[in-house]
Amino acid sequence: MTMTETANAMVDLYCRELKLPGLRSTYQATARDAAGPGQSHTACLAQEIEARRQHRLATRLAQACFPALKTFESFDFAALPQLPKVKVLALAEGGFIRDRENIICLGNPGTGKTHMSIALGIAAIQADYRVRFISAVILAQELLQAQQEYRLPRYLKSWQSFDLVILDELGYLGLGPGGPLLFQFCAERYERGSLLITTNLEFARWVEVFGDPTLTAALLDRLTHHAQILLFEGESYRFLESKERSKK
Ligand code: ADP
Ligand code: MG
Helix H segments across 19-109? Predict the structure, then answer.
């Protein structure tokens, strides 16, 4: 064995011991290409860090359960002249999550609320936060089921690990007995973690979702206390697109 072979064999062993499979597979190639031994070490470690970052990103993206991957690159701000672009892009830096603030996106169907929420969620993951996307109807059903199976407290607790919960499409369908549970969910998150809600319902109609007027008023008071409210005013983007197509 040459010196290099011995050294490589040692690195291989150490990487196994330290459970660094990424470094183990890249070490030899990087060491060969590097100008000097010092550089090969730094390059290998930098690669390992990058590989781990990519792995963490992929895991967190999967955990977030986004229904589609939408980003700000494909978001057309021109379609929503009333939406404050600078403010929205500032939100993408994640300061609101650090401060445990909420965002409420209010507007008609098809105006890009879900698209923008996913884009914000992905930006938050890139800023190293944990994010979970769920539709309001499904969350209400899951809460109800957890309650019926006497595991509601545990279920609620399982959501505490997320820094940002995106609750999509509040109010498109009646939630029935899930309404008060969704109320409890939102109330428990208050000042503990961020909540982003998308809805087509103006605040005056939230009582139709949660049922009880007093509970609803209390929730709105809490939610909007630390909230950015973004209004999506415009025509449905799908509709605008099909109109454009039919012109051609
Ligand atoms: P909402 O959640 O408000 O009902 P969506 O975000 O689901 O609307 O948007 C409907 C479709 O139109 C999606 O495919 C989305 O990507 C697209 N869309 C909506 N608004 C925009 C926009 N401003 N720029 C680019 N695509 C948009
Ligand atoms: Mg939507």
Answer: 21-33, 37-64, 85-91, 95-98
Q: Do 36 and 53 contact (CB within 8 A), yes or no?
A: no
Q: What are the tens digits of pLDDT across the range 3-16? A: 788 888 888 889 88
In this structure, the dihedral spanned by the alpha carbons of residues 10, 16, 21 and 22, taken in order and rounded to 10 degrees, is -30
- Ligand located closest to 116 CA: 1
> Torsions phi, psi of 230, nearest 5?
-110, 125
Residue 105 pairs in a beta bridge with 198, 230
Task: Return the number of other C-beta atoms located less than 10 Å from residue 19's C-beta.
Answer: 8
Take residue 92 and report the two structure tokens written for it.
């993408």
CA 232 to ligand 1: nearest atom: 3
The end-to-end CA distance of the chain, in Å, is 70
**Amino acid making up residue 61:** L
Please report the atom of ligand 1 found closest to the CA of residue 70.
Answer: 16
At 38 the pLDDT is 67
Task: Compute CA distances 58 → 158, 166, 177, whole Å.
Answer: 20, 18, 36
- For a mutational test of ligand 1's pocket, the pick from 115, 117, 230, 245, i.e. the residue with the most ligand atoms closer than 8 A to its C-beta, is 115
Collapsed DSSP state (helix, strand, coil) of residue 47: helix
Neighbour tally for 133: CB within 10 Å: 20
Q: What is the pTM of this model?
A: 0.87
